[in-house]
Amino acid sequence: MRALFTTLADAGHFQPLVPIARALSAAGHAVAFACPASFVPTVEAAGFRAFPAGFDPRGRRNPDLFPGALLRPEASRTHWIVANVFAGVYGAAMAPDLLTLAREWPPDLIVRESAEFGGLVAAETLGVPHASVRADTTSSTYTLRHGYRDALAPLRERSGLPPDPDAASPFRYLHLACEPPRFVPAGAAPAPTAR
Predict the structure, then answer these.
(1) Nearest 5 degrees, angle CA 190-CA 86-CA 71?
(2) Contact at 8 Å (CB) between 193 and 173?
(3) What's the pLDDT score for residue 9?
(4) How far is the C-alpha of 163 from the C-alpha of 156, rounded, in Å?
(5) pLDDT of residue 61
């Protein structure tokens, strides 16, 4: 089996994927990563094949790239970033790159960190399952999925996918949360596919 992992260019997004990628590799599966070009050396240093894909922040932080985020009230800032930056900018750049990459390296499975939305759009377009790995609270919390539904709609439409009014696609398949259950926000129901 070929497993393509997708990540944003940040250690906090990449590191939760590493043990899963190593386990799949140790089990004899082909593993590769798709990530922004400037992050390829980090992935390769961890021992994985890496393909450049998606928006490349080139070491710049989100507040510098998207200063409008700082104008948002602190209580809604993270939700705004997930919808407008992670889905709206990063996901929009990653999805077409993954579809192009799939011609050269066709995956049987895409494993994405939860804030990387291009992987789920590409997987559904290719007709392969995708798993998500919890990397942050907002994009990983099942009850908050409607907050980025509208940002995913244009990505789905550009890829010829049907609408997803319940925002079920991010949690359609396996969702891994490698943390104690108490890390789940109070009152947040887990995704039906969470393990």
Answers:
(1) 105
(2) yes
(3) 95
(4) 7
(5) 81
Residue-range domain boundaries for the chain: 2-183
Spatial distance between the Cα atoms of 171 and 157, rounded to a whole number of angstroms: 19
Closest CA to 24 of 49, 45, 41: 49
Structure token pair of residue 45:
């240093």
Predicted TM-score (pTM) of the model is 0.93
pLDDT tens-digit readout, 101-155: 999 999 999 999 999 999 999 999 999 999 999 887 777 888 888 888 999 999 9
Quick check: helix, strand or coil at residue 104?
Answer: helix
**For residue 112, what are the β-bridge partners?**
6, 132
Collapse the DSSP code of 128 into the 3-class scheme (helix H, G, I; strand E, B; otherwise coil) and give the result: coil
Which amino acid, residue 8? L
Which single residue is written with the structure tokens 């070491």? Answer: 59
Placement of tokens 């809604």 in the chain: 76
Per 3-state DSSP, the chain is made up of helix, strand and coil in percentages (nearest 5) of 50, 15, 35
| CATH level 2 (architecture), domain 2-183 | 3-Layer(aba) Sandwich (3.40)
List b or e across 45-59, with b for residues whose CB sees 16 or more CB atoms inside 10 angstroms.
Answer: eeebebbebbbbbee
